[in-house]
Amino acid sequence: MLVHWHRADLRATDNLGLSKATGEDDVLPVFVFDDEVLAHASPNRVAYMLDALSSLREWYRERDADLCLLRGDPSAVLPDCCAEHDANGVFWNRGYSGLASERDEAVKAALSDEGVGYADFHDALHHEPGSITTNDGDPYSVYTYFWKKWRDREKEPAYDAPDADSLVGAPGEFDDLPTPDDLGFEETDANVEPAGHDAARDRLDRFCESAIYEYDERRDYPWEAKTSKLSAHLKWGTVGVREVYEATEDAMADAPDEDARESVEEFQAQLAWREFYTHVLEFNPEVVTQNYKEYQEGIDWREDDDELQAWKDGETGFPIVDAGMRQLREEAWMHNRVRMVVASFLTKDLMLDWRHGYDHFREHLADHDTANDNGGWQWAASTGTDAQPYFRIFNPWSQQERYDENAEYITEYVPELAGVDAETIHEWHELGVDERGRLAPDYPAPICDHGERREAALAMFKRARGEE
Ligand SMILES: Cc1cc2nc3c(=O)[nH]c(=O)nc-3n(C[C@H](O)[C@H](O)[C@H](O)COP(=O)(O)OP(=O)(O)OC[C@H]3O[C@@H](n4cnc5c(N)ncnc54)[C@H](O)[C@@H]3O)c2cc1C
């Protein structure tokens, strides 16, 4: 018998490691609550993970098997599990963070010591880090070139879910799933999206029916919600990348015209961003805490706890920023356009270090992924690969007018402004104190002046570049 060790691949369909294992022998699926990994988690992500585990376990139980749930250091509990169930090998899919690699090495050594075999597979991306390089064999630091090679490279087809008769089961330490409290976490207050493969497949199918054909044109408008919302599914592996890509290729084949085909390709290009940032992290693990792009004199970020707190609480008086930050707290997710706006606001208007923003996102996003989150933050802060140039600073007022013209997104998350017309919301910074107080007494005045801060941010970056 073999063990398949589920990690960030909480699904049975299109799972390479699981398919390889069931192709060789009977398989006991296992998940390990690893305290060292949990130390980096948050209530929202634990809630999402438990929901995904519940769905996966149900899938196995419907097939007279079971997901064996264990707790502890995988390099200790996996060899014990193999001894108990007479398994002679452990299969898993690779992770690409530093923590995952260190843990995998320890597990391999422990299994070898006990004479248990192992095999790990490349499953989470279409193209493994290091497989797409410049013609000189170096990793890409510019996305466009990476994307062209990624797009043209052949993709593997999706793997079917294994047959029930190749699966066995044991409940392990948990007949019932542990609660967040059992794992040392509070219950989340956020309305976290349903996890699990059925939920992912449902989202994917609905997205590929029509929204994918308008993706290129509509994906930037947060009030429309025209993006796929697959990010947490891709992060936790409740859907496989091959399965997603195949659905987009089917949509491509059914596309009514050239515009629709271009739109499908634009969506595929976002899937490639995810892989690009994973490649960047793999070859530059230091970016988790350091700027990718060095500035000669270093960036002299401001320190301001009150402004940082106002940003976290969605109380800055900049409606689009506050709407985004409140969406994050309420739903453990935020629309991409608004992520860019709030990240630019933190780093260029408040001039606070991107690491404060990254930490806050890591705490709240159900889809938090080290590579993507870091890539997004360093892009906004003008410190990353292929980043926003330092002199291109989003104006939050024109961003909200352009992408939320009727203030529908803003008023959904900032109810204090519900009775105020959109035009006035877009001029909030130009109104007098009395008028703001009359229109929305509980909503704050802007905490800073965008024009002044823009000049100050440009000066901060010029000093960092040694130009002033
Ligand atoms: C400051 C900042 C932080 C971010 N943090 C994360 C994060 O922790 N986890 C995360 O998955 N994405 C992150 N992103 C990227 C992007 O905002 C989300 O992937 C997207 O909003 C998720 O919604 P969706 O699934 O509807 O996206 P869609 O537009 O439907 O895109 C499909 C998929 O492509 C991938 N993708 C899309 N855009 C990007 C991108 N810019 N970079 C990398 N992958 C992308 C995601 O897996 C996404 O699910 C961040 C962006 C910024 C600006």
TrEMBL record:
Gene3D superfamilies the record matches: 1.25.40.80, DNA Cyclobutane Dipyrimidine Photolyase, subunit A, domain 3, HUPs
Record InterPro entries: Crypto/Photolyase_FAD-like_sf, Crypto/Photolyase_N_sf, Cryptochr/Photolyase_FAD-bd, Cryptochrome/DNA_photolyase_1, DNA_photolyase_1_CS_C, DNA_photolyase_N, Rossmann-like_a/b/a_fold
Residue ranges of every copy of the Photolyase/cryptochrome alpha/beta domain listed in the record: 1-126
GO MF terms held by the record: deoxyribodipyrimidine photo-lyase activity; DNA binding; FAD binding
Superkingdom of this protein's organism: Archaea
Binding, FAD: 215, 227-231, 267, 270-277, 367-369
Keywords, alphabetical: Chromophore, FAD, Flavoprotein, Lyase
Cofactor: FAD
Cofactor, free-text remark: Binds 1 FAD per subunit.
A single BP term in Gene Ontology: response to stress
Sites marked Electron transfer via tryptophanyl radical: W301, W354, W377
Annotated family: Belongs to the DNA photolyase family.
UniProt protein name: Deoxyribodipyrimidine photo-lyase
